[in-house]
Design a protein that fits this description.
The protein contains 13 helices and 19 strands. It has helices at residues 18-30, 56-67, 80-83, 87-99, 122-155, 180-194, 200-209, 218-230, 267-281, 333-396, 402-443, 454-464, 475-480, and strands spanning 3-10, 38-44, 72-77, 103-106, 111-112, 168-170, 176-178, 240-244, 251-256, 298-300, 308-310, 315-321, 326-332, 465-472, 486-492, 497-502, 509-511, 525-527, 541-543. The chain has a 5-stranded mixed beta sheet, with helices on both faces. It has a 5-stranded mixed beta sheet with strand order 10-14-15-16-17. The chain has a 3-stranded antiparallel beta sheet with strand order 11-12-13. Helix 6 crosses helix 9 (267-281).
Length: 544
């Protein structure tokens, strides 16, 4: 004998399924089905907020019918809204049952949808359409009622979703109130910054070490401090967040938060903090400008960090400090700049017009590849914009919970920002490659051996060398490596790599077979011991 399925549903966990289930069972048994031939599908889930693919009850219904073809010949439901409150879902289930030749019977009002040939009866179809529209309209009315309740709660200072700033919590009645314990940290941030003269990095380090904030690094902790100092919620305002426009990386507008926060910080203290932030931004700029041939090319082979020019020691150096350890690495600017310029001249001398032609072809190839990447990134950006609109529509129409929607929007905004940054970087890279191509075409008639400008030398080095991976030995390693200080691997734009050893004090460099290399050592920078400037201010680096 064929079996039947009873579909029962309520919207919340607090509601009871038993009454409607019992009534449908009584009707099914009256239709000739035994209790052991009836399969119950009971679920507590929203028919407004969830799509069909997220409705567990409907998923189970389809699985049972598809996995047991011909076993079930009827589906019972108390009323149409128990299937769904959205027309597209109800019509989708109707079509699915018709394709699988399964009858659909609704109790309130009574609807037997198909005849014996599984054609939809005209009267049943009209009744189904009318009550389907009524069920959908009832869902919209409930959603509007909830929206009005949310607005009233917002005006009363209640919590309506989103992440609360530091120092706030949810009190009785769902109202946003100042947390006495956590607000002390916010007061400390403003006082330390305005009255104690501490920087955001100093404050962030202190809060991180005392466990008052959670951050992955001191830099991240300083960012949290800056966000606290700028947050208008602490003076009773409504914080804003960026809404990106079609111009990729430009913010067209800022949307206000839904929450209204009670005042925590006096206006005078907040204003003083903003003035100090602006004052620090307008700090004096350094007027000196030095040219470094290998700037941005030298990497620490251990962790990939880029070595920066250090004016006080005439070195390229990196220093990474964490709570547990510190990493230090350096190499004299004069040695590495002189030798890399030597390699660049040798590269052009050996390659000549042929080498320039190769670089031109490679540059064109890279430009074409980056153009394809740029088009794809713009396509992804457009898809993210459409996805954002769809999610916002689903939040407004109640298809998904607001908390879930907010988290999805936050993830989209992160992807949007990354994609915008990627587009800007690609556009900049393509522009630089086009400029490089122009210079390469011109350089067919130029002998760089005669170039004297440091700026021109730096350009040729940057266009020839891709990166330099540096390894410096410890004192124990020095004795094992033929008294060398360390080694570095030079990677050209063509992909070719070369290994060299060096000694910092003697300025000597050897190839991978320990054969000495003769090159022109250019002493452009001189490091002056700090002891000669004790009690004085100024730089310890001079240019010859």
């Amino acid at each position: 004998m064929s079996k039947a399925i009873i579909l029962s549903r309520v919207s919340t966990l607090k509601q009871d399924l038993q009454q409607q289930t019992d009534e449908v069972i009584r009707f099914a048994t009256a239709e000739g089905y035994e209790k052991e031939d009836i399969t119950l599908i009971e679920d507590k889930e929203s028919a407004v907020k969830l799509d069909e693919e997220h409705r567990l009850g409907l998923i189970e219904l389809k699985q049972k019918i598809l996995e047991n073809p011909g076993l079930y010949d009827c589906v019972f439901a108390y009323e149409i809204s128990r299937i769904g409150r959205r027309a597209e879902i109800n019509y989708s289930i109707r079509n699915f049952l018709k394709e699988n030749k399964v009858q659909l019977i609704i109790l309130k009002p009574f609807i037997k949808l198909f005849d014996e040939g599984f054609k939809i009866e005209e009267t049943a179809n009209m009744t189904f359409a009318i009550f389907n529209a009524l069920a959908e309209n009832e869902g919209y009315i409930r959603k509007e009622r909830l929206a009005r309740g949310k607005t009233r709660k917002q005006k009363a200072g209640g919590y309506v979703g989103g992440t609360l700033p530091h120092g706030y919590t949810i009190g009785n009645g769902g109202l946003i109130v100042v947390d006495p314990e956590r607000s002390a940290m916010v007061w400390k941030v403003f006082n330390d910054y305005v009255h104690e003269g501490k920087t955001t990095t100093m404050i962030g380090r202190e809060l991180l070490e005392t466990g008052q904030i959670c951050a992955s690094s001191i830099c991240s902790a300083a960012g949290i401090v800056r966000a606290i100092l700028k947050n208008v919620a602490y003076i009773g305002g409504r914080p804003t967040y960026a809404i990106y426009s079609e111009e990729r990386d430009r913010k067209a507008e800022r949307r206000q938060s839904s929450n209204i926060y009670p005042r925590m910080i006096p206006d005078e203290l907040f204003k003083a903090a903003q003035e100090k932030i602006q004052e620090n931004r307008r700090g004096a700029k350094r007027s000196h400008k030095h040219v470094y041939f290998c700037k941005g090319l030298i990497k620490d082979s251990r962790n990939g960090m880029t070595l920066s020019p250090k004016m006080s020691s005439a070195n390229y150096g990196s220093r990474r400090v964490t709570l547990n350890e510190a990493f230090n690495l350096s190499i004299p600017i004069n040695i590495i700049d002189s030798f890399i310029w030597h390699l660049t001249k040798e590269y052009y001398r050996k390659a000549g017009d042929k080498g320039t032609g190769i670089l031109i072809r490679e540059t064109k190839k890279m430009t074409d590849s980056d153009s394809i990447k740029l088009q794809y990134a713009k396509k992804i950006l457009t898809e993210l914009e459409h996805k954002e609109i769809r999610i916002q529509e689903r939040i407004v129409t109640g298809k998904i919970r607001e908390a879930l929607g907010d988290s999805m929007l936050e993830a989209i905004y992160i992807q949007f920002k990354q994609c915008s940054e990627n587009i800007s970087a690609l556009e900049k890279k393509i522009y630089e490659q086009e400029q490089k191509l122009t210079r390469l075409l011109n350089s067919l008639q130029i002998n760089i051996m005669h170039e004297t400008s440091d700026e021109e030398k730096a350009k040729y080095v940057q266009e020839t060398i891709s990166r330099i991976d540096l390894t410096r030995y410890t004192k124990q390693d020095v004795r094992k490596k033929n008294n060398t200080t360390g080694h570095f691997t030079v990677t050209y734009k063509t992909g070719r790599t070369e290994l060299y050893y060096y000694h910092s004090h003697s300025h000597k460099i050897w190839d991978k077979d320990m054969n000495p290399i003769i090159y022109e050592y250019i002493e452009r920078f001189v490091s002056i011991p700090l002891s000669k400037f004790r009690g004085k201010t100024g730089f310890n680096l001079f240019i010859k």
